C-alpha cells in the first residue's frame, strides 16, 4: 500500500489532513506518520522499522573524468616552488567545462602571513585567496587544490570553509607527494581515492612553474613593534605586499593549463 508522502519546508504549509487519511511527513526532526480518524488526529514521529523502510546509504560518484598528467605536474611544480619561497601554503582553483570534459587551473592572488619571532620568520598555516569573479565561457567552479606545509589531513579551517566541490590537499611536495581528496556536496564530505581523480597519482613536479602563477603569491610580514624601529607601524605590523618571486629566467611563462 502506497502512503502519500510530503516534505515539509519552512516557506510552505502542508495541505489539510482529511478525515480517514494517513500520510507521512518528512521534516527536519525526522519522519512522522499523520492520521485523521473519527476519534483522533495525530502526528507521531516513527523510526524506520515502524515504516518498513529499507536501508539507504550516502554515496557520491564523479562523472568528470581524471585530471591529466600535465595538469597534475603543473600543480605540483607550483606548490613546490611556492613552498620554497615561504615554507607555507599555496592554492589553485579548479575549473571544469562539463560539455567538453575539460579541466583548467586558475591561480588566484593569494596572501600568506609571516611573523618575526626568536630571530627568524615563521610562516602562518593559513592562506587567503578568492575564487575568480568571472569564469571563462563554459567553465564552472569545480573545487580547489591546497598545499599543506604539514599534515595532509583537512584542517579545522578547511572543514569549516570548504564549499561544495572537489578539494585536493597536497603535503610533502618536496618529497613524494601525499594526497587527501574529498568531494563535498550538500554539506557532506565524501573521500575520493587519488587514483579516481588523477591520471597518474605517482607523478612528480616539473622542473619549473608558470611565472604568472608565482607572481600571484604575496607575503604579508608582521614584526613586533619596538621604539628602536620607528619606521615600523605603531600597531606592530610591517606589510610587504610585493610578490617574493623575483627571478625572470628560471620559470616558464605558461598560463592556465587545460586538459
Concise account of the structure shown:
The chain has helices at 48-51, 69-86, 156-161, 194-197, 211-214, and strands at 5-7, 22-27, 30-36, 41-46, 90-97, 102-106, 110-117, 120-129, 140-147, 165-171, 178-185, 188-192, 217-222. With 259 residues, it is of the alpha+beta class. Strands 6-5-9-10-11-12 form a 6-stranded mixed beta sheet. Strands 1-2-3-4 form a 4-stranded mixed beta sheet.
Notes on the protein architecture:
With 259 residues, this protein is of the alpha+beta class. It has 2 domains: 5-51, no CATH class; 69-222, Cytidine Deaminase, domain 2. 14% of the residues lie in helices and 34% in strands. The chain contains 5 helices and 13 strands. It has helices at 48-51, 69-86, 156-161, 194-197, 211-214; strands at residues 5-7, 22-27, 30-36, 41-46, 90-97, 102-106, 110-117, 120-129, 140-147, 165-171, 178-185, 188-192, 217-222. The chain has a 6-stranded mixed beta sheet. A 4-stranded mixed beta sheet has the order 1-2-3-4. The longest helix is centred in the first third of the chain and has 18 residues, at 69-86. The radius of gyration is 26 Å and the shape is elongated. The chain starts with a strand and ends in a 37-residue tail after the last strand. Residues 229-239 and 246-259 have low confidence and may be disordered.
Q: Descriptors for this entry?
A:
5 helices, 2 domains, Cytidine Deaminase, domain 2, 4-stranded mixed beta sheet, alpha+beta, 259 residues
